[in-house]
Amino acid sequence: MVMEDLTNVQLTNSDRKYVSDGLKAIKLTFLKDPQEMSTATQYAPDMVYQHFGDEETIFGYEDLDVTLHHTAQTLFAYTNISYSGKFKGDKGLEADDINEKLVHADVRANVLCSGKGEFQQKLIKQKEFKPYGEMIHKFQSKGKTFEVYKVTEQSESFNLFLERIQTLGMFYIECCSLTDNTEENWLHYFIYELCDSGEGDGKTLPVVAGYATLYKFYNYFDKRRPRIAQMLLLPQYRKSGIGAQFMESFLRDLRASPEVFDVTVEAPGDAFTFLRDYVDCINCMALPEFSPENLKKGYTETMRNAALNKLKISKTQSRRVYEILRYRVTNKSIKEELKNQRVDVKRRLYAPMKRSDRDWKRLNLALTADELKQAACGAMDEETKFSTLSQTYDRLMEAYQRTIDRIEAHPSIF
């Protein structure tokens, strides 16, 4: 019986010591050489539900500790599992096979090393690794050097490398899955930190810092609409500004392509939305169409076209960027100015409350997924509509203020 079924099993108090919180038991490391195995910084995953079920618990071990070591350049893995006791009950249960659950059988041979010796050989051999694809940007950040590569190839070697990093992504990206890279419309970007080789020869090694995967959808008549399906920064590079710099690097490459109509996102989470808002706002602030004077006059087709043609930002996102930037330049101490801003946003939010079902497809172009949940408001009385509208506006301004705070703290991406 698998762990997901334990909710229907009566465990005794003595049995419960064999239930471990997967988020606490599992740690990940990223190593450049064998000497780091015992000293490397360990990072907790954000999620393990794809591995151990919705409860994210591991059954069958007491005092469980799982260290999932990775080669920092090539992302091969080795699991070091320790525990003080193993379940030997008779309830039709058996201890989880941790290696089996950590990596799907279809890719396990590519990802997991058979033992410590093989993993150590992978650590030594990874020094020969060269990034796939074409370098499109190189930049310095806080004393470190990074390179961004674009990959369009479909070689067996690259496909296996992609498989390994996307398997790792399952610990950090909601609903992350492996992509079929044999489909030619997939496009990938990777970011590497150039680290000292440790050989005293001044050479550097490209260490994986993250990746982004996009799918190029067709758009009439000779254009493409790349959609960001996955974007991951490895845990050691988070909260350092690298995410915005990486995103801006590959967005610049996409903007330079005449075939790109705009760039969209597939089911973005809160953290990604925050990152995207910041990058788009910084870029739009440089456009004269988004000057403070123009922002206070309302959202216009001129703004929409400037964001689309110059920055490849979609209509829905450019409207959101406009609202964030207008809120930023609104003098909150002037009641009339704040009122005008509030009415402007609420007018957009109120649209689903007064439209018929026939309008939903059109509204999808103007509203975010959360805002579309207000569909039920069509049957509300006016007092309830007013209350719901006010609450939605307040939550939205809280999110906008978070982006504004980041803009004030970091007014440029590079």
Automatic annotation (TrEMBL):
Keyword Transferase: yes
Assigned GO CC terms: chromosome, telomeric region; nucleus
InterPro entries: Acyl_CoA_acyltransferase, GNAT_dom, HAT1_C, Hat1_N, Hat1_N_sf, Hist_AcTrfase_B-typ_cat-su, Hist_AcTrfase_HAT1_C
UniProt-listed Enzyme Commission number(s): 2.3.1.48
Any single biological process term in GO: DNA repair
Localization terms from the record: Nucleus
Domain spans labelled Histone acetyl transferase HAT1 N-terminal: 19-174
Keyword terms, alphabetized: Acyltransferase, DNA damage, DNA repair, Nucleus, Transferase
Domain of life, per lineage: Eukaryota
Gene3D superfamilies: 1.10.10.390, 3.40.630.30, Histone acetyl transferase 1 (HAT1), N-terminal domain
Annotated catalysed reactions: L-lysyl-[protein] + acetyl-CoA = N(6)-acetyl-L-lysyl-[protein] + CoA + H(+)
Recorded GO MF terms: histone acetyltransferase activity; histone binding
Domain annotation N-acetyltransferase: ranges: 188-256
Enzyme class name: transferase
CDD domains in the cross-refs: NAT_SF
Family listed: Belongs to the HAT1 family.
Protein name according to UniProt: Histone acetyltransferase type B catalytic subunit
Lineage: Eukaryota, Metazoa, Ecdysozoa, Nematoda, Chromadorea
